[in-house]
Design goal:
single chain; alpha+beta; Immunoglobulin-like; 60s Ribosomal Protein L30, Chain: A; five-stranded mixed sheet; 6 helices; 21 strands; 23% helix; 38% strand
């Protein structure tokens, strides 16, 4: 009986051992791993965080879990790592994560105790800068300057530098402002190019222009005829101006007063008969120096000057006397503004030697006439 009981106990023990053996031989599921990068798209210099997530980790309290990372610029020892992107060129990048579990110091030695995963992210190319520029003023005179203003922008706020060039003249600038000097530039449009460059050597350009006006050329002043004084009506006094002539001369004097910088040329004229007589007397004088030559054209001009100086107060230095060969009994008056060339505008006149002309003032002539009348 004892033997039978012993066999029963052994059978029970055997069955229990089989049951426990069956339970101890059940294998834990293998560890898994996934990884993700955030944000998935960045510019160089922006931070990237990579997170690894392990699954089916053995809950045994003696189990140890460790992570490792590999890839360009990645650093981290736990389930989270960071990527330094500042030196990365634009493109796609992958980070690899690995997880191991097991007893401390023996992690990953058994099958199913390790897993790996990858996460991808992209480094974008920086957008190029933009620029606009303007000139103020846009129209200048030779030798003047114009202020050039540039406005550059970087979508990612990259550092910017500016430079300038011009098709003529010279341009100098610092930062977003420059100055165009038109010295040496020809008349016309000067093209200006404004350039901005970011720290990634990306370039943008804009153009503006400045118009350089033609140099001002003052108009050439010319002689202005003021009118003709008629001496043909007084046959007894062919060189004396009548009241009508004096009224005209008063207008001449007024023109002189209005332009104190102008001068006056009075040109005496004689008719053909008078000119012939003067020429005959001049020819005879060559043989007899004591003979008198009467030049009525010159006398008329000198008498007009005498009236303007003595009666109207015009400075004698402002009036020149000349004659012409025109067939008339008159005096032509010409206002000569500063800078005008009388000989160019009125050719064919001859200057009069006033010292050779005996001048009697109008008042003196009138007085002499009264004396003659009184004697008669």
């Amino acid at each position: 009986m004892y033997s039978r009981n012993l066999k029963s106990v052994c059978l029970v023990l055997a069955l229990a051992c089989l049951a426990f053996a069956s339970m101890g031989c059940k294998k834990a599921p293998p560890i898994t791993l996934s990884a993700a990068a955030a944000p998935p798209v960045v510019y160089a210099g922006d931070p990237v965080t990579v997170t690894a997530t392990a699954g089916s980790v053995d809950p045994n309290t003696k189990n140890n879990v460790i992570y490792s990372w590999s890839g360009t610029g990645v650093s981290g020892t736990g389930a989270t790592a960071t990527v330094a992107t500042a030196t990365l060129a634009p493109g796609s990048y992958t980070v690899k994560a690995e997880v191991k579990e097991g007893k401390k110091g023996k992690e990953g030695l058994k099958p199913g105790q390790s897993a790996d995963a990858t996460a991808s992210y992209t480094v974008k190319q920086f957008e190029p800068p933009t620029i606009s520029c303007s000139a103020s003023p846009s129209t200048i005179k030779p030798g003047e300057t114009s202020n050039i203003t540039a406005v550059g922008m970087s979508p990612q706020n990259r550092p910017l530098t500016y430079s300038y060039s011009a098709t003529a003249g010279s341009i100098n600038g610092s930062g977003a402002a420059a100055v165009l000097s038109s010295t040496g530039a020809p008349t016309g449009v000067v093209g200006i190019t404004c350039t901005v460059t970011d720290d990634k050597a990306q370039v943008a350009q804009a153009n503006t222009s400045v118009t350089v006006l033609a140099p001002y050329v003052a108009p050439i002043p010319h002689v202005q005829p003021l009118g003709s004084i008629d001496f043909s009506k007084d046959k007894q006094h062919p060189t004396r101006a009548n009241n009508e002539a004096k009224a005209a001369l008063d207008g001449v004097a007024l023109a002189m007063q209005r332009d104190p910088n102008a001068k006056l040329v009075v040109v005496g004229e004689a008719n053909a008969k008078e000119q012939a007589k003067t020429a005959k007397e001049a020819k005879a004088k060559l043989k007899n120096k004591h003979l008198k030559v009467v030049n009525l054209a010159a006398e008329r001009a000198v008498n007009v000057k005498d009236y303007l100086v003595k009666e109207k107060g015009i400075d004698a230095a402002r009036i020149s006397v000349a004659t012409s060969t025109k067939d008339a009994q008159a005096v032509e008056t010409y206002l000569v503004p500063a800078g005008a060339n009388f000989d160019a505008d009125v050719p064919g006149t001859t200057a009069v030697d006033e010292s050779s002309i005996i001048v009697k003032s109008f008042k003196a002539i009138k007085k002499a006439v009264k004396k003659v009348v009184k004697k008669l």
